[in-house]
Amino acid sequence: LALANIGLDLLGQARHFLSYAAELTGSGDEDTLAFGRDERQFCNLLLAEQPNGNFADTIARQFFIDVWHVALYGRLVSSRDAQLAAIAARALKEVRYHQRFSRGWLERLGNGTALSAQRTQDAVDNLWRFTGELFQADALEIELSMQGIAVDPRELLVEWQSAVHTALIDAGLQIPQEAAFRSGGKQGLHSEHLGPLLAEMQYLQRAYPGQRW
Predict the structure, then answer these.
(1) How large is the average pLDDT for residues 121-132?
(2) How is the chain classified by DSSP, letter by letter?
(3) pTM of structure
(4) What digits encode the pLDDT tens for the residues 82-116?
(5) Distance of alpha carbon 49 from its chain centroid, rounded?
(6) Is residue 213 part of a domain?
(7) What Gene Ontology terms for biological process does this UniProt record contain (predicted)?
(8) Average pLDDT for residues 182-192, to the nearest whole number?
(9) Does 212 reside within a domain?
(10) 145, part of any domain
(11) How many Å apart are CA 56 and CA 123, to the nearest integer?
């Protein structure tokens, strides 16, 4: 039930951001951007599109993203763009709860049975290669951050590492060795997992364009 509520929170945040993006670009509304774009037009992080897998996989992925969200929104509340700041202020309250939830389960799994600990370590090790992209900045992000509108993701690294490393140690897990990171999602280059997600999510709108329900 908690994961379902977290999903609803994230959908609400996405709707606010997409609605504002559609307003700024004159490209319809949030439904147009959610259901009308092709895979290469999505610029999400690769970490966010990785499969749920088992419960440990889901918790590890969620925790990595939750810590990043807290650091991101904690800075975005100071944006010179009042609308972005307002969205971030509301979202920050939600993602702080998300982080407490996922961190709590990370510790329970890591300090639980031998099987749960091994599955959690495997999940952390497998997803670690996608975390470097969280802190990669493109030219637009750098420009907007210099204008005080957006956040330079490179500024989030130290806070994220501190929170994640502490949690992993408390959970009795090993911090993965630094290795080559996967990236490309922000440039529209995705893993094999996004296509099937979009096919399922966009089916009705693509089959019956413009319909409301």
Answers:
(1) 97
(2) -HHHHHHHHHHHHHHHHHHHHHHHHT---HHHHHHS--GGG----GGGGS---SHHHHHHHHHHHHHHHHHHHHHHTT-SSHHHHHHHHHHHHHHHHHHHHHHHHHHHHHTS-HHHHHHHHHHHHHHGGGGGGGG---HHHHHHHHTTSS--GGGGHHHHHHHHHHHHHHTT-PPPPP-PPP--GGGT---TTHHHHHHHHHHHHHHSTT---
(3) 0.92
(4) 999 999 999 999 999 999 999 999 999 999 999 99
(5) 9
(6) no
(7) phenylacetate catabolic process
(8) 87
(9) no
(10) yes
(11) 6
Give the CA angle between residues 19, 189, 75 to the nearest 5°.
50
Rounded to whole angstroms, the Cα distance separating 6 from 58 reads 12
Q: Count structural domains, the chain.
A: 1
Predicted confidence band of residue 213 (pLDDT cuts 50, 70, 90) = low
With respect to residue 121, please indicate whether it lies within any of the assigned structural domains: yes
Contact 132, 193 (CB under 8 A): no
Q: Which residue has the tokens 């990669």?
A: 136
- Band of the pLDDT at 4, cuts 50, 70, 90? very high
Give residue 16's domain range. Answer: 1-207
Q: How far apart are alpha carbons 14 and 150 in whole angstroms? A: 16
What is the distance of C-alpha 155 from the center of its chain? 16
